[in-house]
Write a structure and sequence with these properties.
By secondary structure, the chain is α/β, with parallel strands linked by helices. 43% of the residues lie in helices and 14% in strands. It is built from 13 helices and ten strands. The chain has helices at residues 8-29, 33-39, 51-55, 57-65, 100-111, 126-130, 148-165, 177-193, 196-200, 214-228, 237-241, 260-270, 299-320, and strands at residues 44-48, 71-74, 89-93, 116-120, 133-136, 204-209, 232-236, 251-256, 275-279, 289-293. The longest helix has 22 residues, at 8-29.
Length: 356
């Protein structure tokens, strides 16, 4: 069974209400024995590929702050087992449950009798069948270039991290997510509208962040490539400062954060480079600096709100560059078990895959 496929724009519109549903749905799943099983994990290892791997920056950051030894690893790096990793639980993420690399990692874990947990949107799936424990998003409709699927995964992973660490913030993180996502999208549309023409002329993009927000930066780079067909790279803030920023030139700089990121954004924009800063701080915009202000939130909710800004950015640039959002070029048939699912492309261009 596959989740219902919707357009990217529909995903943006329906996202606030969908996230509220996912919060309630995942909390219900974690209200009993599932939470007890997760709480036994002292050295969880998180794995995924693509956007799923990006989302894993959220639970890894949260758990490390609670003293839990953990890390994320690309699924293709453990296709032959987790030897070399001191772990007592493998947590894999795959929205449709068919990612070939994550499935291979779970099969190897099964041979090693390593406990596994899967975060899925589609529970009845190959990965769901392999996992010892499943946490699903409720089979929410999603777009091919993911909207709700990604942000809902962040929600689920934060709640799982809370179960592992014993954190209980009740409504603290997610209680106002519907109103917040709606307001942030409106603010992002206003700000991005002021730089859309210039941003669309950029030849590449850099997305820079630290901590949990690395998930937002990595998702931004992926969406800019998928949707806008703009070469894009995600960087950790401190690494970016150590030479990576020297290639700036007709580049769109997306900077996410409140600390060193602010002075970085000012440096880039001060040198004449178009910069979009997403921050909770009161930072004045300038000739080359656009600023989207976020409400103060917990790190995981902040990642969701940053992603809402990213989604608005790529939707706007797609329109400005006259690239249909659903018109993917390549259809690789070895990344999903069973090959390409025709339903994945039901809303896409008739020319999809002709170059693949």
């Amino acid at each position: 069974m596959s989740a219902t496929r919707i357009t990217f724009l529909a995903g943006q519109t329906e996202q606030p209400q969908a996230l509220a549903r996912v919060v309630a749905h995942v909390r219900d799943q974690l209200s009993g024995s599932a939470a007890e099983r997760l709480r036994k994990a002292r050295r969880p290892l998180f794995t995924g590929i693509g956007a799923s791997f990006a989302a894993l920056a959220v639970p890894v950051t949260a758990l490390r702050e609670h003293g839990v030894v953990t890390q994320r690893v690309l699924a293709d790096e453990i296709e032959h087992g987790t030897r070399g990793f001191d772990t007592d639980l493998l947590v894999g993420v795959s929205q449709g449950g068919r990612s070939s690399e994550t499935l291979a990692a779970f099969k190897a874990a099964q041979e090693q009798t390593l406990p596994t947990a899967a975060v899925l949107n589609v529970p009845q799936s190959p990965l769901g069948d392999l996992a010892g424990l499943t946490v699903d998003l409720g089979n929410e409709p999603d777009s091919y270039a993911s909207t709700t699927g990604f942000t809902a995964t962040v929600v689920a992973l934060d709640l799982i991290a809370g179960a592992i660490s014993g954190r209980d913030d009740s409504e603290g993180t997610w209680g106002r997510i519907t109103e917040q996502t709606t307001a942030v999208r409106a603010e992002a549309a206003r700000v991005i509208g002021t730089v859309r023409a210039r941003a669309a002329r950029c030849v590449a993009a850099d997305a820079v962040a630290s901590g949990a927000s690395r998930a937002s930066a990595e998702e931004a780079a992926l969406l800019l490539r998928e949707v806008v067909r703009m070469p894009a790279t995600a960087s950790a803030t401190r690494s970016y400062l150590h030479g990576e920023m020297e290639s700036a030139g007709n580049t769109l700089h997306l900077v996410l954060g409140d600390d060193r990121e602010i002075s970085l954004a000012r440096s880039l924009s001060g040198a004449g480079h178009l910069t979009l800063l997403v921050t909770t701080r009161d930072v004045a915009a300038g000739e080359h600096l656009a600023v989207v202000r976020l409400p103060g939130t917990a790190p995981a909710a902040r990642v969701v709100l940053e992603t809402v800004v990213v989604q608005e950015l790529v939707a706007t640039l797609s329109g400005e560059r006259n690239i249909p959002i659903e018109s993917f070029v390549f259809a690789n048939d070895d990344t999903k078990e069973g090959g390409v699912d025709p339903s994945d492309f039901a809303l896409a261009s008739p020319d999809l895959g002709r170059n693949g």
